[in-house]
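Mods, move this if it's the wrong board.
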Amino acid sequence: EADPNEKELFFKMLSEIPAEVLYDLAVENPKIYLPNYETERSCMGRDEKNGEYLRIDFRNMEPTQLLHEMGHILDHIYTENDNAYGSFSSNNADFINAFNIGIARFEAAGNQRHEEKWNSDEQKYEVLHSNGKAYCTFNEQEMFAECYHYVMTGDCMSKETIDKYFPESLELVRQYIDDIRNGKYGERNLIK
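Not the wrong board. Structure tokens:
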């Protein structure tokens, strides 16, 4: 039985999410995985635990984070070339090229990318360099998730960076979402 406070937080969060994202949640039907707060580290994100999961810590999550994490779900469901990572952002040559062009522009302007390193002792990422407005520069997958959030709401924490340096990446995500909704990748709701 879910904690009543957690249910309240969940419904509050859902009330602040755009209808298109709620539709994506309903159609793609990711399994919502709530971590055991006593034994597991607090984190959010796409998780592979017997299939596609959306790992959510409602105690520390904002609606904007749910939008970002839903972007990861859509990134991983529909691929033309499946590999070990199995995502559009990791497999689509046009998207990878657009990301790399944007990174070159971003760095040529004297900016530093968002950087993190996995700390296996503490089982968490350590931020080496952070610029909240440039979280999308961490890697292709974070760029995709930020662009999904931006397409759905017209805003995200990386909006200024995407507008200035990554317009091609944004357009490719917009087209990918349109393609999903128009059936290019077949019937939706591939997660059973």
